[in-house]
Automatic annotation (TrEMBL):
Keywords: Carbohydrate metabolism, Iron, Isomerase, Manganese, Metal-binding, Zinc. GO terms for molecular function: D-ribulose-phosphate 3-epimerase activity; metal ion binding. This is ribulose-phosphate 3-epimerase. The keyword Manganese applies. Homodimer. InterPro entries: Aldolase_TIM, Ribul_P_3_epim-like, RibuloseP-bd_barrel. It catalyses: D-ribulose 5-phosphate = D-xylulose 5-phosphate. It comes from Aegilops tauschii subsp. strangulata. Its EC number is 5.1.3.1. Its cofactor is Zn(2+); Fe(2+); Mn(2+). Catalyzes the reversible epimerization of D-ribulose 5-phosphate to D-xylulose 5-phosphate.
Amino acid sequence: MVTNPSDYVEAFGKAGASGFTFHIEVARDNWKELIQNIKAKGMRPGVSLKPGTPVEDVFPLVEAETPVELVLVMTVEPGFGGQKFMPEMMDKVRTLRKKYQSLDIEVDGGLGPSTIDAAASAGANCIVAGSSVFGAPDPGQVISALRKSVEASQIKS
């Protein structure tokens, strides 16, 4: 999380980033311009919300004339790895999935083999996993398990 995401759009675009996700909490006044700049640099815009931010705060960004293409629901407080997954954040994921069936919904924080099913069944289709993958004896096996859970949940819905 950065406090002024506009300062990074050009550099990320030049570096070849395919997407740029910013926190709604630091872009409440300039999100329309920020989305335009992200798209102008050839990247896919996304918005993130911290656990204490109401999910409704991102609705205008998803419904805008130039919308975000991904919503990232933080399932921990941003700042450092290894935190415990907050299952109560799955209500936000369910709300987003019900309202926006084709939206990419990402979750970040505390995701691993023991929490992936809750996230996938709530409607998350993009998973950020750090500690559970990089701390595992077989990272490939963990990635495969996470992917299988998400794919299975998508087939059911």
